[in-house]
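F.,

This is the one I mentioned.
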C-alpha cells in the first residue's frame, strides 16, 4: 500500500528522492513491529537540517535504504524480522527481470511450454483464511500464517529447489492469458517462499477484479467471457529466497475475508502465463552508516498505559459456516496532566457460508470511554456489511452518553449498487 510508493518514487525521480523502507507495520519506525526499529527522530532531524536550514547541503545518503527480508517461519507474531539492511540505487537500475513460465506439471519453467490444455482456477471461498489481518496497521500480531492451507485451495506453480539465492528487488509482474465466464470474477495471486520442510510463507499478494481494465478503471462495457490477457503487478519488495527453497506462484479466485467475495462464481481458465522476477544483480551492499538506535522519547512521559491486553484472533469452521475474527480487549491510557483516561475496545467478526458468495457478513463493534474529573463520556458504534448479487447492504448505529445519559443516537441502513464488483 503506502510503502509501495517509496521504491517507485525513487525509481521515477532518483535525482530528488531518497527512501527508507523498513520491516515494520503501520507505525513510527522507532516503535515499529515487527522490528528492528530505527532512531526515527534522529533521522528526521538529519533530514530537516539538510532541507530547512539555509546552509543545508544535498545529503550524501544512498538513494534507498531497505530491509532485505528473508524466510521467517510463518506465525501470527514476529518480534523481529530475519534479514538485514542494504543500500542501493533505483530498483530498475539494480535489478533485471528473470522470466519463468507456467508449465505442465504445475511447474515454473525457464522455457515457454508448447501449447497445452491449460488450467482451471479452483473456486474455494475459504481461500484467504491464512492471509492474516484484513489490514496490517501496526497491531500486535496478525501476520500471514502458513500458506499451505491456502495453497491447497488454489492453483500452484513451483520452481525446483533453488541452486542459489534469488534476491527480489522491485515489483514482481505476472502476465496471464485467460477467459472468465463471469465478468466480475477475481484473480488473486500470491508469491510464496516454500522452505525445504514444506512451510509456505507469503512474500507478496496481488488481486485483480476482472471487470476492470488494465488501468484499474471500470470500462463502459465489462470484458466478455472470451480470451483476454491481463498483467498484474505486486507491491515492491526486497526479499531473499535462500538456496534450497522454492518459489511458488499461487492463483485463487477469491481472497476472503480481506476482499469481498464476487457476486457469482464462474469458470476461470488460464491457457498460458509467465512470472517476471526483478532480481538484484550482484551482492547486496550493507549500510555504510548504520541507523541510530531508537530512543525512549519523550523523556518526560505525558501518559501511562494502564492496560494493554493482546489481541485475540480466531477461526472456526463447522462445515456450514466459516467465522474469522479478532477482539481487542479494553486498552486504557491515563494522561496525568489532565487526570484524563481514555480506553477503547473493538470486536471484528467475518462470517461466510460456502459456496454461497452472497452469504458474507462483516461486523465491527467499537466502544470508546473518556473519563475526566467532571464526568465520563462513552461512544458505542456498530456496523454490519452484507450483500445481495446486486447491492451492498450497510447497517449501522452509534450512541453517545454523558454520565450514563444518552445525548446522541442514530441508526441507518444503506444499499449501495454493486456496479463492478
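My design for it:
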Amino acid at each position: 500500500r503506502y510503502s509501495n510508493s517509496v521504491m517507485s518514487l525513487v525509481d521515477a525521480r532518483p535525482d530528488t528522492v531518497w527512501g527508507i523502507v523498513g520491516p515494520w507495520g503501520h507505525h513510527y519506525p522507532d516503535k515499529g513491529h515487527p522490528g528492528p526499529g530505527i532512531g526515527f527522530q534522529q533521522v528526521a532531524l538529519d533530514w530537516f537540517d539538510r532541507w530547512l536550514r539555509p546552509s543545508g547541503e544535498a545529503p550524501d545518503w544512498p538513494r534507498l535504504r531497505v530491509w532485505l527480508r528473508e524466510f521467517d517461519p510463518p506465525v501470527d507474531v514476529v518480534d523481529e524480522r530475519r534479514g538485514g539492511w542494504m543500500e542501493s540505487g533505483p530498483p530498475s537500475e539494480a535489478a533485471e527481470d528473470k522470466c519463468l513460465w507456467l508449465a505442465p506439471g504445475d511447474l515454473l519453467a525457464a522455457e515457454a511450454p508448447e501449447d497445452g490444455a491449460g488450467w482451471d482456477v479452483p473456486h474455494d471461498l475459504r481461500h484467504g483464511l491464512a492471509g492474516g489481518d484484513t489490514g496490517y496497521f501496526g497491531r500486535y500480531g496478525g501476520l500471514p500464517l502458513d500458506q499451505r492451507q491456502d495453497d491447497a485451495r488454489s492453483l500452484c506453480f513451483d520452481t525446483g529447489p533453488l541452486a542459489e539465492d534469488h534476491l527480489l528487488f522491485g515489483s514482481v509482474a505476472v502476465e496471464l492469458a485467460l477467459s472468465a465466464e463471469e465478468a466480475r470474477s477475481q484473480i488473486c495471486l500470491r508469491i510464496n517462499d516454500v522452505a525445504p520442510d514444506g512451510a509456505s510463507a507469503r512474500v507478496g499478494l496481488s488481486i485483480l477484479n476482472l471487470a476492470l481494465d488494465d488501468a484499474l478503471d471500470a470500462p463502459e462495457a465489462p470484458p466478455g467471457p472470451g480470451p483476454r490477457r491481463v498483467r498484474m503487478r505486486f507491491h515492491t519488495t526486497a526479499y531473499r529466497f535462500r538456496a534450497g527453497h522454492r518459489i511458488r506462484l499461487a492463483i485463487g479466485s477469491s481472497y476472503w475475508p480481506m476482499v469481498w467475495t464476487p457476486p457469482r462464481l464462474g469458470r476461470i481458465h488460464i491457457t498460458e502465463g509467465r512470472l517476471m522476477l526483478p532480481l538484484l544483480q550482484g551482492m547486496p551492499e550493507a549500510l555504510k552508516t548504520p541507523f541510530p538506535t531508537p530512543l525512549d522519547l519523550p523523556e518526560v512521559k505525558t501518559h501511562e498505559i494502564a492496560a494493554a491486553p493482546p489481541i485475540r484472533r480466531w477461526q472456526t469452521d463447522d462445515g456450514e459456516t466459516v467465522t474469522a475474527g479478532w477482539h481487542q480487549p479494553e486498552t486504557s491510557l491515563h494522561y496525568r496532566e489532565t487526570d484524563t483516561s481514555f480506553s477503547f475496545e473493538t470486536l471484528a467478526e467475518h462470517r461466510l457460508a460456502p459456496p454461497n458468495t452472497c452469504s458474507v457478513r462483516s461486523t465491527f463493534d467499537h466502544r470508546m470511554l473518556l473519563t475526566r474529573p467532571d464526568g465520563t463520556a462513552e461512544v458505542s458504534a456498530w456496523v454490519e456489511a452484507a450483500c445481495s448479487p446486486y447491492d451492498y447492504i450497510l447497517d449501522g448505529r452509534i450512541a453517545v452518553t454523558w454520565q450514563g445519559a444518552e445525548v446522541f443516537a442514530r441508526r441507518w441502513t444503506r444499499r449501495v449498487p454493486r456496479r463492478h464488483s
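The two ends are 20 Å apart (CA to CA).

Talk soon.
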